[in-house]
Design brief:
Elements (H helix, E strand, L loop, with lengths): L2 E5 L2 E4 L4 E8 L6 E8 L6 E7 L5 E3 L7 E5 L5 E6 L8 E9 L15 E2 L3 E6 L1
Parallel strand pairs: 2-11
Antiparallel strand pairs: 1-3, 3-8, 4-5, 4-9, 5-6, 7-8, 9-10, 9-11
């Protein structure tokens, strides 16, 4: 059974940094795509970034480019999301999601692309 567990959320002032972690277990293949999404109160869930396990290529939406960095764990399944220069508008519950197979630039931002989801981690950025 695939499980995704997010950690590392919290409260930070604007301009600060946080690192989220998504620990994955139960993967039956080494080739997978993990994405990060976020959902603010009263808003729809939106994509943040994604990364492929094999090539390590990361994808980012425009609102986080240059501020967020997504990387794979070095020795086991999972990913980090380093979030720098945080803004109040980054406040949301952050979810990681996964699917087997490559990430694709045309698909990674779609909620329907992923088969497995974590429970979410709250990130709050104060002004």
């Amino acid at each position: 059974e695939v499980q995704l567990v997010e950690s590392g959320g919290g409260l930070v002032q604007a301009g600060g940094s946080l690192r989220l972690s998504c620990a994955a277990s139960g993967f039956t293949y080494d080739d997978y795509c993990i994405g990060w999404f976020r959902q603010a109160p009263g808003k729809e869930r939106e994509a943040v970034s994604a990364i492929g396990s094999v090539d390590g290529r990361a994808y980012y939406v425009d609102s986080v480019k240059g501020r967020f960095i997504m990387t794979n764990y070095a020795t086991k399944d999972g990913v980090f999301l380093q979030m720098n220069s945080l803004k109040p508008e980054d406040t949301a519950v952050y979810y990681c999601a996964a699917k087997f197979g490559d990430c694709h630039d045309s698909d990674y931002s779609s909620i329907d692309y992923y088969d497995f989801w974590g429970q979410g981690a709250q990130v709050t950025v104060s002004s």
